[in-house]
Structure formats: structure tokens, C-alpha cells
């Protein structure tokens, strides 16, 4: 994977001045449960403390963000109802 494949976000711990900026990279990956035809694609990006989920057909659109406990609950619920 090259750095051009990553999505960069300014860290919330960075100051407002230009000199003290930290960026964090996120790499989106297609869920193994997504369709192979490209029509039902869910992508996930894991960061420390947060898991992001988006629809790959609209990468600039809204996405969900889960904390570790919420993500574990979501996965458990999805496994029970799959």
C-alpha cells in the first residue's frame, strides 16, 4: 500500500497553529461480507480507539464511527442476526 492510498486526518491533539500539527492515516478495507460484484460494499478503517464504517459507493459521504465496546457489540449483534 502506498501513502497515496491513505486518508489523512488532523489529530484532535494538534494545536490551531501551523507548527504543531499531527496527522493520522486511515486505510479503508472492504468488508469480507461485501458483495463481489461491487454493489453491496462496506468498508472499514480501524484507528486506535475508533472503527470507521462507510459505503464504498459514496466514499466522501457520511460514515459511522464506533468505539471499541460499541464495535464489539455491533459485531456480536450482526453475528446473531446474520
What report would you give on this structure?
There is one protein chain. The chain has 82 residues and is of the alpha+beta class. The chain has one domain (3-80). The protein contains 1 helix and 6 strands. The model has no long low-confidence stretch (mean pLDDT 75). It comes from Actinacidiphila cocklensis. InterPro entries: DUF397.
Q: What's the order of the H and E elements?
A: EEEEEEH
Helix content: 10-25%
Instruction: Characterize the overall form.
Output: flat
Report the average pLDDT across residues: 75
Strand order of the largest sheet: 3-4-5-6
The figure for the number of domains is 1
| Percent strand | 25-35%
Sheet with the most strands?
Answer: 4 strands, antiparallel
Enumerate how many helices there are, as a single number. 1
The beta-strand count equals 6
Structural class: alpha+beta
- For the termini, the CA-CA separation is 31 Å
Unreliable spans: none
Descriptive terms for the model:
single chain; 82 residues; alpha+beta; 4-stranded antiparallel sheet; two-stranded antiparallel sheet; 1 helix; 16% helix; flat
